[in-house]
Design brief:
single chain; about 200 residues; alpha/beta; 5-stranded mixed beta sheet; 8 helices; about 45% helix; binds zinc ion
Length: about 200
């Protein structure tokens, strides 16, 4: 339909989440008119992201180092771990300023429909941390969705026999959405009002 270089960019952009065919076309034609230096900065930023950003060896947050800045921060309480689905959820919980422990990123949630079971998530790594880091409480801060709730229940069943307290964010979060659908105040309240599972 379009010249091959334009079509190629449209195809690549359309593969990104939340970008449909129409948006991809609009972005591609916008990029056709930007300064060459601006286009180069954008492509360099994408390449650099893939080359320099790694996952934290301890919690699987994004980092440019072996361990992320939160894991390296000695003021953070190692006895409490907040378990989230994705690295971007850490930013959301941090914005509440109500949490001073460490994190663990599962890499998703249990979803039989999508074929994702506990083995596809970083459960084994979490169990290892509980045994090695003197963890006393695990907060299941998975999304307020069916999959997030299923994952939280699984966490409780897996971890309680290890002698840790497993808590879940209090209700009041917008049901069915991602964690970042909630505003900071609501999420902060859900965090302080968390309940034992
Ligand atoms: Zn980390």
């Amino acid at each position: 339909m379009f010249e091959p270089p334009v079509q190629r960019l449209i195809d690549e952009l359309a593969r990104l989440p939340g970008i449909g065919r129409k948006s991809a076309q609009r972005l591609a034609f916008h990029l056709l008119h930007v300064e060459k230096a601006d286009a180069e900065r954008l492509s360099e930023a994408i390449v650099e992201l893939r080359e320099q950003v790694k996952l934290c060896a301890r919690c699987f947050n994004v980092t440019g180092d072996v361990e992320c800045s939160i894991c390296r921060d000695l003021r953070r309480d190692p006895a409490t771990i907040c378990v989230v689905e994705r690295p971007q959820d850490i930013v959301v919980v941090e914005s509440t300023r109500e949490f001073h422990g460490r994190y663990h990123v599962l890499g998703g949630s249990i979803s039989p429909i999508a074929g994702i079971g506990p083995d596809q998530l970083r459960m084994r790594e979490l169990v290892g941390r509980i045994e090695n880091e003197g963890v006393k409480e695990v907060i299941a801060a998975t999304n307020p969705t069916v999959e997030g709730d299923t994952t939280a229940l699984y966490l409780a069943r897996l971890l309680k026999p290890l002698g840790v307290k497993v808590t879940r964010l209090a209700s009041g979060l917008p049901v069915g959405g991602d964690l970042d659908y909630a505003d900071e105040l609501t999420l902060g309240r859900a965090l302080t009002g968390r309940q034992e599972m």
